[in-house]
Write a structure and sequence with these properties.
By secondary structure, the chain is α/β, with parallel strands linked by helices. Helix content is about 35%, strand content about 15%. It starts with 9 loop residues before the first helix and ends with a helix.
Length: about 150
């Protein structure tokens, strides 16, 4: 007997995409972002295919109310480089949070996604808002999901 491995194609995956709404209020950054990254990649889907974008579209609200445990707000450092000599910039989590609270969640989720062209397609399915108001209410009807109920 010969069995053939069935693989999902992009048309099947596009039909099954859903919009999910998550609230980041009082959530721990790393635990919250790891679950979001799994859903974005599509690891929770039955038809997960590693070389295709099979995750859902995710909206995160209340990014300004996320929690970091311990001394991470002061001690955690984010490093960026301009590419020029002496172009290294170091900022702490509190500086990044004051500048844009959405950027803290975005950088942590981005670090958990693949670093390929597939990863850049996946990150387009992520929408982060610092307050409870978001501009996608008129186009899509969403129910608020609790992150603790999923995993």
């Amino acid at each position: 007997m010969f069995f053939k491995t069935l693989s999902a194609n992009q048309t099947i995956l596009n039909k099954n995409k859903k919009w999910l709404l998550f609230d980041a209020e009082n959530q721990i950054l790393g635990r919250f972002c790891s679950i979001i990254a799994k859903i974005l990649i599509g690891k929770n889907q039955i038809f997960f295919t590693p070389n295709l974008n099979c995750g859902n579209k995710i909206i995160i609200i209340n990014a300004s109310k996320i929690i970091l445990t311990g001394k991470k707000f002061k001690d955690k450092k984010y490093i960026s480089h301009s590419g020029f000599p002496g172009g290294k910039k170091i900022s702490t989590a509190i500086e990044l949070f004051k500048k844009n609270p959405c950027l803290l969640i975005y950088k942590s989720i981005l670090g958990m996604l693949p670093k390929t062209s597939l990863g850049s397609k996946i990150k387009k399915n992520l929408y982060i808002f610092s307050t409870a108001n978001h501009n996608l209410k008129k186009t899509i009807k969403l129910n608020l999901l609790n992150i603790n109920d999923i995993y």
